[in-house]
What we know:
The protein folds into three domains: about 10-120 and about 155-255, no CATH class; about 260-410, 3-Layer(aba) Sandwich (Protein Transport Mog1p, Chain A), CATH 3.40.1000; about 410-465, Membrane-bound Lytic Murein Transglycosylase D, Chain A (Roll). Helices cover about 40% and strands about 20% of the residues. It contains 18 helices and 18 strands. The protein has helices at about 10-25, 35-50, 55-60, 85-90, 95-110, 110-115, 125-130, 140-150, 165-180, 185-205, 215-220, 225-235, 245-250, 315-325, 395, 405-410, 425-430, 440-450, and strands at about 30, 60-65, 70-75, 80-85, 255, 265, 270-275, 280, 285-290, 295-300, 300-310, 340-345, 345-360, 360-375, 375-385, 400, 415-420, 460-465. The relative contact order is 0.11.
Amino acid sequence: MTPTADPAISPQEAQKANDQHQAVVAEFGGEVGGSRGSYVERVGDSVAVYSGTPGAASAYDFTILNSAVENAFAVPGGRIYITRQLMGLMDNEAELAFVLGHEVGHIAADHAQLRQSRAQRNTILGVLGAVIGGVVGGDSGLGNLLSRGAMQYSQLNTLSYSRDQEYESDSLGLGYMTQAGYDPRGGAGMLAALGRASALEARIQGRDNRTTPEWARTHPLSENRVARAAQIARDMPNAGTRVNRDTFLGQVDGMIFDDDPAQGVIEGRNFIHPDLRLRFTVPSGFTMQNSTRQVGIQGSGGQAIFTMRGYNGNLDSYVVAAMRDVLGQQAQQVNIPSPRSTRVNGLPAAYTTTRVNTQNGAVDLSVFAYQFSNDRAYHFAMITQAGAGIGPFQSMVGSVQRLSAQEAANVRPRVIDVVTVQRGDTVQSLARRMAYNNFQVERFLSLNGLASNASLQAGQKVKLVVYGRR
């Protein structure tokens, strides 16, 4: 399939992408470099050269982000990003080639420019934007202000492609990878892996509405899309056969999966940050999403973030400033009551609540802050129904506490461990080695794309997620 727009990348676009690169990397947890970074660059170049972009090997840059969110996205200037978590879901190099080719397709087909012409500019907000942005709806809603006040973010034209644009990029990506010699069935395989991860996450969270992996959310996933990719692969003449599974597994072996302890980890309802030496617990029925600068919390009773800002030693002024961060220009029209002082598990604390009118009605905005040292404080910013105040989050704000040195030392990363099946190994015996206290078999099957009645063969390579070292 031929791109519908000029695949060339202008010097202006390239410069803009390069200028914002470090901000993107910082927003998504840093860059995974070394041999893994070089490997992804090689695979990306191998498919990009078939995009029609002049000097494609140098026009496109591919970066692995140290993020626990399954995501990949493209910036019009030729920068393409993929998270280590999305790579961890993959089974082989062909699946990686499809994702990178798909993102190249968005750039080569000029999808961002086509969207701009329809005034559909978008913002990469990281995890928190997705969690908080829909609380009250609309660009002027308090949820959007909460996310903007709590974090820095990069203005990128990357999200919300139309269905036709997604289908076109699927077709382009499948075409690029096939010309590069890859098995085009990797496209449907990757999309199916995302579907499995989404369905399993819904079961783990105990909710009917599944938490869709970020790449599937920004690149809408459906059974029709998986079936379409599979049909295109079947219809392709002279289809490639390369999957390079062993090479790919060798690259992801030892890679961090899920949260990086340097950014804090989520264990059930607990958030634990060994470097900051703190922990808290969310109420039953609430879920968390972690990003580099904050934790997003959501449930039927409200939504919140846990984050930090500059601290000068005065906790009352910290609370007021944090609330003004959230309110932005609305701060002039909102009365912020004087904070109340208290102590939580030995920590000096202060909090306040105010009523805010939004386009969807009145809500309560609360800030609850904790002093951890003379120059360090953290806070929750919470949105609840008018009149509820902190109520739904009462147990959470009371759970913040320091970690002991031993507790911090006990926090270890989860890493991918590629193992060779030995005679006598079963799904159940290998799943028991997974570093989780629930859904071990289901996680093992999903991670390896195996059916529930699968039997393992000696010599077969499979992925486990085990505890690593810090």
